[in-house]
Amino acid sequence: MIHFVGAGPGDPELITLKGRSLLEQADIVIYAGSLVSKAHLDYCKQSCERYDSAGMTLEEVMEVAIRGDREGKSVVRLHTGDPTIYGAIREQMDFLKQNRVEYTVVPGVSSFTASCAAIKREFTVPDVSQTVIITRLEGRTPVPELESLEKLASHRASMAIFLSVGDIERVVEKLAEGYGSRDVPVAVVYKATWSEQKIISGTLEDIAQKVRDAKIDRFAQILVGYFIEGEYGRSLLYHPEFTHGYRQGTE
């Protein structure tokens, strides 16, 4: 059996209990070495085969995984964060289907939620935003035209932007066009939950220079929106006058 496991954003304690258990039982682990904390490998048994996929192709990864499955071994494909977000797992799963290999997917803590936790904020707050947009700037990997940053920013929803801090100036220009303002709160979180985590706060007006001054050009989340700073409404869920299935509100 092949198990796709989300390792979480960095802190090895943020893997799920199920993910940790599968690691402890694994005979083969193929891990994303450029992104996953090596501390996770400390929980593998001594006999476990370890493969760093940073320098491997899809075909090479699948060859190791399928060989292990056919030998009756438990194989863990360890991805950073949550494997369902920018994890490139669809092509791996399709490859396994074509070869009639069974697999499971174990979710993990994504860097976008870890980053929001790091700045001690909530993406969805009343009267501000009830929507979170997870996206990226187009680069060598294209983005559909309808999903361009400026079009998404025009919704003024909370945004979490992956894989884009290396081109922060272009990110800012597109966001400013969409928002129609540069007075929009931004937080850039470098390596959320790692020991070297850094948080850079500002607005679309000044964030690019702050990020350059901090020499951050990768491994960072860009969080954008008025959920970061500004007024918001009180939640009805705990409002004394609000009635729901578990509590009668006061008049």
Automatic annotation (TrEMBL):
PROSITE patterns: SUMT_1 (PS00839), SUMT_2 (PS00840). One of its GO terms (molecular function) is precorrin-4 C11-methyltransferase activity. Its EC number is 2.1.1.271. GO terms for biological process: cobalamin biosynthetic process; methylation. The keyword Methyltransferase applies. The keyword Nucleotidyltransferase does not apply. This is Cobalt-precorrin-4 C(11)-methyltransferase. It comes from Andreesenia angusta. The gene is cbiF.
